[in-house]
Amino acid sequence: MNKFLRKFFVALVIVFIFVQVGFTANEEDAKLIKKILKDIQLTTRVKVEYDDNVFLVEDNEESVVKEVLSQSFLYRLINDKSFFRWNYTGQFAYYNDETTSVTSHSTGFMYSYRPLKKLAFGLQYDYNWLKDSKITSTIGDRVVDLGYHHHRPEVEIKYEIQPRTNIRVNAGVEDLDVTDADSDDFIDNKKRTATLEVNHIFTDLDKLMGFAGMDFRQITFPQISQKASTAYRPYIGISKTFSGIGIWRSEVGFDHINMDELNSDDDNIDFKLSFETIFSLYTKLRFSLNGNVKKSSLRSDYTQYAANIAKMNISHAVSQKTSIFVDYSFEKQHFESSDFTIGSERIDRQTYIQRLNLTLNHKLRKGLSVDYQYGYTKRDSDFAREGYTDNKFSIALTARY
Amino acid sequence: MMKKIILIILVMIMVSVAHAQEEERVTQEEFACELIQTMKLSGVLPLASLASDCADALERLGISPMAGWNNKAYLGKEDYQVILAKAYGKEARLHEIAQKVEQNNISVINEKWKEVHEELGKWIALEDLLNNKNYFPNGLPKSPYGHAYQDDDGDHKVEAPFNPTVGLMKIRQALSVYDQNLP
User: Fold this and answer.
1) Mind listing the pLDDT tens digit for each residue in A282-320?
2) Kind of pairing, strands A296-297 and A322-336?
3) Assembly ipTM
4) CB-hemisphere CA count at 13 Å for A97?
5) What Å distances lie between residue A77 and A38, A39, A84, A122, B44, CA to CA?
6) Is residue A121 within 8 angstroms of chain B, CB to CB?
7) Which of B180, B105, B95 is nearest to B139 (CA)?
8) Segment holding B34, helix H or strand E
């Protein structure tokens, strides 16, 4: 803790010196620095949380009180044709009873540019790092106590073919690298994705829109080749805006998944339904359902599984200073057939996960707010030692400046 | 203080749009992009965003003309007044006014329909009434929600159009303890 605080204060002093030098260098530099500083938003958050099952275990749960300090930085620039965002969040969580800590960092940038009325492109990069720790986290469909590095660059181009018709091309790479070299054989992976989509608006005001596209996905595991796969997913859907009420969207896709080495497939039909309200600036309800016709193969774990998920989100401004947020989700993961790569038995396995998050946000004064939160997770799983119930209560103070 | 700043910004946009209209009319989606820029809402836009994405993003936030965004249509004076009022959080007041206008329109149409019936001694079709400029020299009453006025049950009276938004707004207000304090 002391080591962390020392580093934090040293960083603060360096920033202070840098700013002072900038201001005294010359008037032009000072103006430029002032302009940049104006577009920067800093957020400091201090949270105290009680967790009744810190190791996410089925039996012999251990409760803990933890303090979490997070510092965010957000730099945004926007003009009529482009916008740029650069963000960083560092988080340090200290677990009192366990005398241990977890550090994580996430950063990224996004640049979007519209050189012509009909043409836009964007570039984005996200990086996440979680320190190795005995405190568990979730990677894909598994609960593990591993740290990792995660990179995701992405590029997108959109072109308006006709006033009502757009074409969108997106390509990205995702790299997950677990830091513990002894436990990463089945988890480390590289994913390449690409999407080509065309959408057409049939009617103007209620925006009845049809869209069709093709997703491409290739996954490789550096340490093991049996789990590598290539997938093509053609999809089609419609969305409709009920003016002043809500937006409905539905999509169906056929996922043709080829396991590269085994010359077999894990084909699946999936569907996505969602509805969100748009009648108010102060109240929002969102419902969504993702379903799959076929159960995923066991060999697909960590990355390629398909889950059936129902979600509901509500946000509502009770007053000018107070807002409530309710988020609930129910997820079912179903795996069938054996995974010979890890020699497991040929039995179906299911995991049911329920999550509930309640938040009450209250603005104390300009730039300062307090959050009261309750989080509930219940995981019933056929996978050994992966079921648990977890309750979290927290209070957080957030300052934006 | 913040409210005043936002109000000044919005008034500046209104003035600039009014000037722009004199020189070159802007489409609704172009205005949506100006509003996103002024309100610094780039975070709600997709990675590669065309002007239509600005309108979609604002619609998701509950900011739109009464009848929804018509991306390629030119921005009308009423449209931008409604959009700015919603952006400033005056949605409840806006719906109150719109409902009064709706009720007034219906009574104007019904009175005129009855008047024509008494003049001609027979009922004319609603369509003929609404399409005849002589009956409405000041212009046909226009629904603020973009509804088409209809007489579904044939009693020669226009019914109030089904409008769930007004009901939803009432529920929302009932759930807001201090709703009158919202900007």
Assistant:
1) 899 999 999 988 766 655 555 566 788 999 999 998 888
2) parallel
3) 0.79
4) 12
5) 10, 7, 5, 14, 14
6) yes
7) B105
8) helix B28-38
Using a CB–CB cutoff of 8 Å, tell me whether B173 touches chain A. Answer: no
Does the beta carbon of B167 lie under 8 angstroms from any beta carbon of chain A? no
Which class does domain A39-400 fall in? Answer: mainly beta
Q: How far apart are CA A278 and CA B13, in angstroms?
A: 24
Counting DSSP H helices and E strands in chain A, the numbers are: 2, 22
Q: What is the pTM of this model?
A: 0.78
Residue-wise pLDDT for A57-95, tens only, equals 888 888 889 999 999 999 988 888 899 999 999 999 888
- Do A147 and A178 form a contact (C-beta atoms < 8 A)? yes
- What is the C-alpha to C-alpha distance for residues A213 and A170, in angstroms, rounded to an integer? 11
Backbone phi, then psi, for B178, in 5-degree steps? -115, 45
Pairing of strands A283-292, A40-51: unpaired
Are B150 and B158 in contact by the 8 Å Cβ rule? The answer is yes
Could you say which of B40, B42, B68 has the minimum Cβ distance to residue A205? B68
What CA–CA distance (Å, rounded) separates B134 from B114? 15
Q: Are A145 and A131 in contact (CB under 8 A)?
A: no
For chain A positions 348-377, those within 8 Å of chain B (CB to CB) are 366
Structure tokens at A316: 């509502």
Number of Cβ atoms within 10 Å of the Cβ of A350 = 14
